[in-house]
Amino acid sequence: MKTWLICIDDTDDICTKGTGEIAEEIATKLAAASAENTGLRSTRYVTRHQLLVHPDIPYTSHNSAMCFQIDSSLDFFQIKDICVTHLKQESATIADPGLAILDLEAEFDIRKLIEFGQQTKIEVKTKQQAYELAKAQGVDLTEHGGTGQGVIGAIAGIGLRLSGQDGRVKGHIKLGQKTDGSDELLMSVEQFIAQTGLQAVITTEGEILAPHDQLTLKGKIKAVYIQFQFALLVSNESGCWCNATKQQLKSY
Amino acid sequence: MQQWFTQQSHLWLFKFGVEDYLQARTAAIDCQDFLVDDEDEHTDNTLKSCYNCMYRRWQPESFHCHKNHASK
């Protein structure tokens, strides 16, 4: 059983299946294939990493990469085959998909990968730079159609996920509340963590809330990846800890 | 249309940037082509907002509307 980090980028276009959905499908397929071999199933959250929006970057839709970690008994070639087959099947015809796979137990310089990811949020990178980094750090980086420009975001997403300080978790948390925000759920941090499996509740100021702190939850409840934890982001509204709005989540 | 967008070549650029939620919602209410994007890409808590639309493509300071507005 090994642990892998997998990231895809530039698979979609307007009105096609989103990159996040494709990543989630790949994670599910890998987990299912691994479960057949070992009886275990352990995919983790898909995180969305926003990259630079710039006129020189020919992104298809949002310029965000999608990354997930998986423990699997499959070997590298089996994992890559499942990823590539699904990418080719589901990517938009106009897209430029990239795929990055990292063996987390192999030797690599995490600082170099994080640095590249962070730079990709603020400056334009090239495919050559992405491939050079991949070769130096043992990341399997491949392109699967179009210009293959997605390799830049794919390896950047790996670095950003490794930073432990970037990304919104795909999807939202369902606790029975109405997603239009017309009702509220009240519960403690301890209860929330027990019901959701998230690891922490963290304020927009970076403070970790205590188990007994009370939460007021409404609308769509989304998680982020910060301080190396999958966490609910909250802000203080009139003395209550409320789940972050879409506007507040935008910068994660 | 021209109340909210400026024509740039064959596309329309939203006049009010990336954080004027009131204008983005008002423009979407007036738009017959609004199509909600993947929920993970939403940046406005109000669903019907140009900021949540499938046809917007972010630019550094605003977004372009990629719907064909030739008929408007």
Helical segment count of chain B: 1
Sheet with most strands: strand arrangement of chain B: 1-2-4-3
Instruction: List the total number of helices of chain A.
Output: 7
Structural class of chain A, by secondary structure, is: alpha+beta
Number of strands of chain B: 4
Q: Name the shape of chain B in a single word.
A: globular
Question: How large a portion of the residues of chain B is in β-strands, by DSSP E?
Answer: 15-25%
The quaternary structure here is heterodimer
Radius of gyration of chain A: 18 Å
Report on the biggest sheet of chain A: 6 strands, antiparallel
Would you report the number of β strands of chain A?
A: 12
List the secondary-structure elements of chain A in sequence, H or E.
EHEEHEHHEHEEHEEEEEH
Order of helices and strands of chain B: EEHEE
Which percent bin holds the helix content of chain A? 25-40%
Sketch the major β-sheet of chain B: 4 strands, antiparallel
Overall, the morphology of chain A is globular
Q: Report how far the terminal alpha carbons of chain A are from each other.
A: 31 Å
Query: What share of residues are in beta strands of chain A?
Result: 15-25%
Low-confidence stretches of chain B: none
Give start-end ranges of low-pLDDT stretches of chain A.
none
Cα distance spanning the termini of chain B: 7 Å
Structure description:
Chain A has 252 residues and is an alpha+beta fold. Chain A is 33% helix and 25% strand. Chain A contains 7 helices and 12 strands. In chain A, the strands form 2 sheets. A 6-stranded antiparallel β-sheet of chain A has the order 5-4-1-3-2-6, with helices on both faces. In chain A, strands 7, 8, 9, 10, 11 and 12 form a 6-stranded mixed β-sheet that branches. Chain B has 72 residues and is α+β, with helices and mostly antiparallel strands. In chain B, strands 1-2-4-3 form a 4-stranded antiparallel β-sheet, with no helix packed on it. In chain B, a hairpin with a 2-residue loop joins strand 1 and strand 2. Chain B is globular. The chains are: A alpha+beta (252), B alpha+beta (72).
